[in-house]
């Protein structure tokens, strides 16, 4: 029974990690996203070519060009030419 509880806990932890949005900066210069999650606003800076995971439980993201999108936590934001696109 103890092994079952440990295995179930690990499965839940691994499953929750898989449900995070990601952002990839395809530009040759740094870009910044504004992420609003749970009423808290923060800046997410991405270096050229960098990929990061964020927004595990849903959030709003403001793209470098000012567009704002709601995310559920499963999307990928691709930044190219200073414009973010949801994939």
Short description:
With 87 residues, the chain is α+β, with helices and mostly antiparallel strands. The protein has 1 helix and 8 strands, in the order αββββββββ.
Rg (C-alpha, Å): 15 Å
Q: What is the helix content?
A: 10-25%
Poorly predicted sequence stretches spanning 5 or more consecutive residues: 1-17
Number of helices: 1
Q: What percent of residues are in strands?
A: over 45%
Principal-axis shape equals globular
H-E string:
HEEEEEEEE
Tell me the structural class.
Answer: alpha+beta
Task: Characterize the structure shown.
The protein is α+β, with helices and mostly antiparallel strands. Strand 7 (76-80) and strand 8 form a beta hairpin. The N and C termini lie far apart (41 Å). The protein has one helix at 2-17; strands at 21-25, 31-37, 40-46, 51-54, 59-62, 68-71, 76-80, 83-86. Mean pLDDT is 85; it is low at 1-17. Helices cover 18% and strands 46% of the residues. The strands form two sheets. A four-stranded mixed β-sheet has the order 4-1-7-8, with no helix packed on it. Strands 3-2-5-6 form a four-stranded antiparallel β-sheet, with no helix packed on it. The relative contact order is 0.23. It is globular, with a radius of gyration of 15 Å.
